[in-house]
Amino acid sequence: GQQVQQSPASLVLQEGENAELQCNFSTSLNSMQWFYQRPEGSLVSLFYNPSGTKQSGRLTSTTVIKERRSSLHISSSQITDSGTYLCAMEPNTGYQNFYFGKGTSLTVIP
Amino acid sequence: EAAVTQSPRNKVTVTGGNVTLSCRQTNSHNYMYWYRQDTGHGLRLIHYSYGAGNLQIGDVPDGYKATRTTQEDFFLLLELASPSQTSLYFCASSDVGGSSYEQYFGPGTRLTVL
């Protein structure tokens, strides 16, 4: 079954607005990672964040293991933030098998 | 920073054709992975390996073979390509057992099977 649920599926923001993207897991996890996918397809790793809170510039990732969820907060959005955001988790099974969500498509307009 | 390269970047073949996608990582990671990405499905794991000569089956292995010839090199083989294998393929590596299981991705290969 689907192990990783991302929400919302799509989001439109005006430049300067904040966004909160969610990732929920159906099983306990060993590790998780957030990616940004550029419109041309390449993937950029944003955070490797198996637990707790990490910040990088305008981006903040928070993973709560007990609640099986992770969030990505984007503050003061910019047009260049447009693209798809993916989360991936490795379940706590002993196998190094990662599962990805289907992504959140973000569009930032002027 | 880990470097993962893929070749070719784009490939067009015909149904029944033979295709090999190549991946090389230069950071001495033990694990390497092949994924495919399709609209509506996200990234799905095809095969992965934890070292030269090792192969593990992922979630969507049908129609694919893979071979890890060295620590650095991991190949994905489509011996009888079908249109359903038209996709964006990613290779990744990670240092499982180290301080972090972070995955590093290559730039992707767009494969079209006509």
Characteristic key phrases:
heterodimer, A: 110 residues, mainly beta, six-stranded mixed sheet, five-stranded antiparallel sheet, globular, B: 114 residues, seven-stranded mixed sheet, four-stranded antiparallel sheet
How would you describe this structure to a colleague?
The complex is a heterodimer of chains A (110) and B (114). Chain A has 110 residues and is an all-beta fold. Helix content of chain A is 0%, strand content 59%. Chain A contains no helices and eleven strands. In chain A, strands 2, 4, 5, 9, 10 and 11 form a six-stranded mixed sheet that branches. A five-stranded antiparallel sheet of chain A has the order 1-3-8-7-6, with no helix packed on it. In chain A, a hairpin with a 7-residue loop joins strand 9 and strand 10. The radius of gyration of chain A is 13 Å and the shape is globular. With 114 residues, chain B is mostly beta strands. In chain B, the strands form two sheets. In chain B, strands 2, 4, 5, 6, 9, 10 and 11 form a seven-stranded mixed sheet that branches. Chain B has a four-stranded antiparallel sheet with strand order 1-3-8-7, with no helix packed on it. In chain B, a hairpin with a 4-residue loop joins strand 7 and strand 8. The radius of gyration of chain B is 13 Å and the shape is globular. The model of chain B has no long low-confidence stretch (mean pLDDT 93). At the A-B interface, strand 4, strand 5, strand 9 and strand 10 of A face strand 4, strand 5, strand 9 and strand 10 of B.
